[in-house]
Amino acid sequence: MSPDLLMLLVFAGSMLLGIPVAFALGLGGAAGIVAGLSPDMLATLGTNTYNSIAKYPLIAIPLFILTGLIFERAGVAASLVRFAQALIGPRHGGLGLVVVLVCLIMGGMSGSGPADAAAVAMVMLPSMTKAGYPKPFSAALIASASSTAILIPPSIALILYSIVVPGVDLRALFAAGLFPGLLAGMSLLLPVWWLAKRHGWEDPKHSERLDLKETFIKALPALFAPVLILGGLRSGLFTPTEAAVVAVTYGLIVGIFVYRQLSLKDIWVLLGEAGMVSGVVMIIISLAGIFAWAGTTLGTFTYLAQSMLSLSDQGWVLLLLIMVLVLLAGMLLDAISIYLIITPVLIPLMQHFGWNPVWFGILLAMNIAIGQFTPPVAINLMVTTQIAGIRLEKTFGWALFFMLTMLSALVLVMLFPGIALWLPEKLGYVVGPW
Predict the structure, then answer these.
(1) Could you list the residue ranges that cross the membrane (predicted)?
(2) How far apart are CA 295 and CA 31, in angstroms?
(3) What is the rounded distance in angstroms from the CA atom of residue 334 to the CA atom of residue 330?
(4) For an engineered disulfide with 158, which of 173, 193, 211, 429 has Cβ 3.0 to 4.6 Å away?
(5) For residue 200, what is the DSSP state?
(6) How far apart are CA 262 and CA 69, in angstroms?
(7) Of the candidates 334, 382, 371, 405, which has an alpha carbon nearest to the alpha carbon of residue 139?
(8) 423 φ/ψ angles, rounded to the nearest 5 degrees
(9) Following DSSP, what letter does each residue of 106-138 receive, concatenated?
């Protein structure tokens, strides 16, 4: 058996046995090293593990995770919900439209879909249920709308992509994700309104009309967070990593002094939670370094890329196959694992066809976003159904419906790359092809 095949089989077999993906990656890489190189080369495990996480931009990941937790507990979601309700007004599907709008704004603070799903579900599920929305529909809608967080900057997924793919400007990725993220969110608006009107959910006659000025003033501190982060990046005032520090500091100020929802005890708890979540992420990244080094040294990734090229010499055909592959992976794995496992294989294909790496990164992120609420393993759905107190399988029909609507946004970005590339080009970031 070739070392390439052994490495992949050990990885796949470990996953099937239920071994966590981080350790499955490490075991697969170690098996490939022993079989294809030399047992003495196992001495490189420590170096590869350290080198995988000893990268300055990765500091932003635990900080943005902490940011998401702070804004979730600081009462930001509640203020944004009331402002969105005042903005949209009483109408059929109004609360559904509020969910999408709030998730898009929250995505500009945390960069994490599950964190946004939890924050919005806690606030919106009771009022949506009272207005007549079925819980499975509400849970599926919140899960799908919150998935746009990995597209709206700052995005933890895009930070990782900039690490895996050399030479990609993270600022360009952040800018490129804005319009596709908005497009993905907007793709949910019309179906939500149509379904609410058809089924008679949320009678406008019995809906409360909130004062727009009052709710806007209360939501202003929360609305300023994305402006601060993106404005600072655009002006060059701080780097993406420094933006994460600014976001944490601003979140603490808002939570303690403005909304007064955070105490010193809460901050200590949040630091512990952020540390645990970040630890899981960093373990995956570090052990994936072993897999990546073994795959690169053995030529496994090149071989897999050549095998995919043999399927078709047409770029669009292969791109469609890749999108299907990533969508299937998104149904089973988390975004971090997908980037670390699949991207090294796709880099040679990007170079071969001359695909723009920024545009391609956004396509991957959109696809992975859809996977976050698509069964069987749908992390956003797991969060919202747990809060709603319903079984996961009850949401599958609605989740598949929203998957189709967001796939339409993905197809548009595939056909018209300018949707993603116009803004970073306008801002003067490097978005050129290989």
Answers:
(1) 59-83, 95-125, 137-161, 173-196, 216-233, 240-259, 279-304, 316-342, 362-383, 395-423
(2) 11
(3) 6
(4) 173
(5) T
(6) 11
(7) 382
(8) -65, -50
(9) HHHHH--HHHHHHHHHHHHHHHHHHTT--HHHH
Gap between the Cα atoms of 140 and 380, Å rounded: 9
Residue 377 DSSP one-character state: S
Residue 43: what are its φ and ψ, rounded to 5°?
-65, -15
Helix 357-371 vs helix 156-164: crossing angle, to nearest 10: 130
Whether residue 226 contacts residue 108, with contact meaning beta carbons closer than 8 Å, is answered with: yes
Helix 76-88 with 60-73: angle, nearest 10 deg: 70
Determine contact, residues 353/304, Cβ cutoff 8 Å.
no
Answer for the pair 160, 64: CB distance below 8 angstroms, yes or no.
no
Instruction: Provide the token pair at 99.
Output: 């969910």
CA–CA separation, 13 vs 160, rounded Å?
Answer: 26
In the chain, count of helices (H) and strands (E)?
A: 20, 0
> pLDDT 10s per residue in the chain (434 long)?
788 888 889 988 988 888 888 898 899 989 988 888 888 888 888 888 888 888 877 888 888 888 878 887 887 878 888 888 888 877 777 888 899 998 888 887 766 777 788 888 888 888 888 888 899 999 999 999 999 988 888 888 888 888 888 888 888 998 999 999 999 999 998 889 888 888 888 776 666 777 888 888 888 888 888 888 878 877 778 888 888 888 889 989 988 888 888 888 889 999 998 888 888 888 888 888 888 888 888 888 777 777 877 887 788 888 988 888 888 877 777 777 788 888 888 888 888 888 999 999 999 999 988 988 887 767 788 888 888 888 888 888 898 899 999 999 999 999 999 999 999 998 888 776 55
Q: What gap in Å lies between CA 421 and CA 174, rounded to an integer?
A: 11
Relative orientation angle of helices 300-309 and 335-353, to the nearest 10 degrees? 60
Give exposure, 151-166, as e/b (b: 16+ Cβ within 10 Å): bbbbbbbbbbbbbbbe
Q: How far apart are CA 269 and CA 245, in angstroms?
A: 18
Residues in the chain: 434
Q: Could you give the CA distance from residue 102 to residue 84 in angstroms, rounded to a whole number?
A: 7
CA distance 5 to 13: 12
Burial of 303 (0-12, 13-18, 19+ CB in 10 A): middle
Which pTM value belongs to this model? 0.86
Nearest Cα to Cα of residue 112 among 167, 152, 139, 73 = 152
